[in-house]
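does this look right to u?? calcium ion version
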Amino acid sequence: MRILIVEDEIKTAEYLHQGLTESGYIVDKVHSGLDGLHLVRQQEYDLVILDVNLPGLDGWGVLESLRRDSNTRVMMLTARGRLADKIKGLDLGADDYLVKPFEFPELLARVRTLLRRSDQASAPSVLRVADLELDPGRHRAFRGDQRIDLTTKEFALLHLLMRRSGEVLTRTQITSLVWDMNFDCDTNVVDVSIRRLRAKIDDAFQPKLIHTLRGVGYVLEARE
Ligand code: CA
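got this back:
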């Protein structure tokens, strides 16, 4: 699950980034409305957390532009608790509205509710390739009837490989889809993570599902 934070107050943005990352989300953050719009057009997000008071293009402007061509969930943040603002936000297509100051657990609870809602609407529930099974809703993985324990990153990586099963993914693609944009892009990390994932889902099983294309990347598929 990938979240974008658009918030000009550095401290608030950092606080949200840290909390949401620790909760298992992939989180990007930008400090202006234009950067936010730019990223939303480049990258798919499950949720945008959008501050209303931004310098230049404000949160309303971002929301309006975004709604012309995107259904991404949007949670507005504002220092103003006026009913008129709330109505304006909902009219422009915001999915939720949170007044500052707020406690992080409240934000997290709302984020989870919003993402669950979009999950039910769009995401296929359980993914299967051969006898490998991944249940994103319950955050569980099985190979045959053996339960596999995965870290948050391993889970995100496996989810990606299974969603795009049969498709070769380059290290750069994997990095950009599983790690956030501020991640120091050492593609070696992808190899290390793939090795760990293989140890859990492939080493003790047949057939092998993760395949390396030397110099290109990785693909997950059942081969005869
Ligand atoms: Ca602000």
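The pocket of calcium ion is lined by residues 8-9, 51, 53-54 (CB under 6 Å). idk if thats expected tbh
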